[in-house]
Specification:
This protein is an alpha+beta fold. The chain is built from 13 helices and 10 strands. The strands form 3 sheets. A 6-stranded antiparallel sheet has the order 5-6-10-9-8-7, sandwiched between helices. The chain has a two-stranded antiparallel sheet with strand order 1-2. A hairpin with a 3-residue loop joins strand 3 and strand 4.
Length: 416
């Protein structure tokens, strides 16, 4: 094997070419000239030997270029695996979604990478595997649980910032594609916070105790039942050694006292950051999913306005409480009703020719008239509660093909 710093013999008369990125670029250009020359000769000279040289150049040139890319070291390996992932994902989902999805994966892994470098750890750049994900290789393990948590938290934190930027841009442009990419980013970072090693959540929560990993077991089992996946099975298998370690964990053992020892204030700081990030990601995963459903809802024959607005505001289904008013003249394009845990929950997607400001003014006035208070306004989601009751309604507005789409949800006691 040629050492990266050793000049490579690749040229006429056996002269060495410059090493490093500049040398590789020159070698690639020279290889291109050789290939073009061989093709030209093959076109004018039909000798078998010349044909053979042209065929060999055609076959081995791509391989040579790939090997030269690997001589770029970390960047070359990351670039190649990113491109391969882009190809595979593009076949399944289209290249635009694939590029956005891989971009968010890259941000997540670069969060880990930069945090590890900041703590002085020797670490490799991200490596991508299609339909599995990406990772960075820690060539030097953290010396304590606080460093491990610091590196683990940086990935979902930076990944969440990227997904949020994607979501805001989707809202601004009315792009369903960007909504889908943002949803994938929120969900994957949320999933990574399951408190089970080797996921990021397990590495973060170990600042409290490795035994907290057992809280992640029922979550993982529930996901495997709800959405069976070979990847979930793989993660579960990888978690077995960590769970054995947690089962045998002795906080008084010298090695554990050295690794997990830290100030209580630092433990609480990481715990608060973990809970806040998990809550935000859970909320935004739901918000983005609702927006996608609304954008993808097929247009159906709308109910006449007189049926949508009956009396003080009963819906076209006739079973919603009167305070759960739909916007006047709205077209119902999706209608859902759920009953669980003693609560009745309605979710409707509406299409209306009105500005977000007009819609907001309508629901603000409705909230005041019925004694509701605004308990949450975050990234376009507005939620109102009626004090002393289980009554709640929320709405979110986004633009789609020149129309305002409203995702309206109402919840109340099932015995209303």
């Amino acid at each position: 094997m040629v050492h990266p710093s050793t000049p490579v013999v690749f040229g006429r008369k056996g002269l060495p070419q410059p090493s490093g990125e500049q040398g590789i670029q020159r070698q690639a250009l020279h290889a291109g000239h050789v290939y073009a020359s061989v093709r030209s000769e093959a076109a004018t000279d039909q000798k078998p030997d010349t044909k053979r040289r042209g065929l060999l150049a055609t076959i081995f040139l791509p391989l040579i270029l790939v090997l030269k890319l690997f001589k770029l070291g970390k960047i070359g390996g990351t670039a190649i695996t990113m491109v391969l992932s882009l190809v595979f994902y593009s076949v399944q989902f289209g290249w635009r979604y694939a590029a956005g999805f891989i971009g968010l994966l890259f941000l997540h892994e670069m969060g880990h990478y930069l945090a590890a470098r900041r703590r002085g750890l020797h670490v490799g750049t991200p490596t991508f595997i299609p339909f599995v994900g990406a990772w960075i290789e820690l060539k030097e393990q953290p010396m304590d649980a606080e460093t491990e948590a610091y590196v683990a938290l940086a990935g979902p934190l930076i990944g969440t910032l990227g997904a949020t930027a994607c979501y805001l841009l989707a809202r601004e442009l009315g792009s369903t594609l960007l909504l889908a990419v943002a949803y994938a980013g929120f969900f994957l970072n949320f999933f990574n916070l399951i408190p089970l090693s080797p996921l990021d959540g397990g590495r973060i929560t170990s600042v409290l105790s490795p035994r907290i990993w057992f809280l992640g077991v029922p979550v993982m089992l529930a996901l495997m039942v709800y959405r069976p996946s070979p990847l979930l099975v793989l993660i579960a298998i990888m978690a077995i050694p960590s769970l054995k370690k947690a089962w045998r964990y002795d906080r008084n053992a010298p090695e554990n006292r050295a690794y997990y020892d830290m100030a209580m204030a630092k433990r609480l700081e990481y715990t608060a950051l973990y809970i806040a990030l998990a809550a935000y990601l859970g909320l935004m995963t739901s918000v983005a999913h609702s927006a996608i459903n609304a954008a993808a809802a097929p247009a159906i024959s709308p109910a006449p306005a007189a049926e949508v607005m009956v009396g003080k505001g009963a819906s076209n289904t006739g079973d919603m409480p009167v305070w759960a008013r739909l916007y006047p003249g709205a077209q119902v394009v999706r209608d859902q009703k759920l009953d669980s845990f003693g609560l009745a929950d309605w979710r409707k997607t509406l299409s209306v020719k009105a500005s977000p400001e007009q819609i907001g003014a309508f629901y603000e006035a409705q909230a005041r008239a019925e004694g509701f208070t605004n308990t949450q306004t975050l990234l376009g989601l507005h939620r109102f509660m009626q004090p002393g009751t289980n009554n709640m309604f929320s709405y979110m507005v986004f633009q789609n093909a020149g129309q305002s789409m409203i995702v309206f949800e109402a919840r109340t006691d099932a015995r209303h």
